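Hey team,

Filing this mostly as a record. A colleague (T.K.) asked me to run one chain through the structure pipeline before their review meeting, and I want the input and output archived in the tracker in case anyone asks later how it was produced. No errors, nothing strange. Just documentation.

Input sequence:
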Amino acid sequence: MPTTPWKKCADPDPNRTYVAFLTYLPLKQFRMIPRFLFYTVRVLVQLSKSDGLGGYSLRANLFKNSFWTLSVWEDESALRGFAFKGFHKGVMKLLRNDMGSTRFIKWAVQGTDLPLSWEDAMRRFGKS
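Output structure:
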């Protein structure tokens, strides 16, 4: 799965500060990829109905069992409202033992700097 194009879910207010969120999700074993992708489709359904989502993109390196998400939210409350509710909350438990060391990076971003770029996100992650 290549990097998906940025999916804009709301028009950004150039005078507002948003919450940008990058996740790194490494799978321990290659055989987990089909199940992970199946769950990803269900998470995307929940994401599409989430309040406060500005936009998102996904990235994968199948040869390294590595996945990333990049999203922007109106505020912390909107981000938590997605992450700790619905199917996403349950899938975190379902995949807990199949994941390597996950990483989460959060930062403030101005509306004028949207959409987010993978180049900037990966610099924050420590990879160019």
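Quick notes for T.K.: The longest helix spans residues 33-48. The chain has one domain: 7-125.
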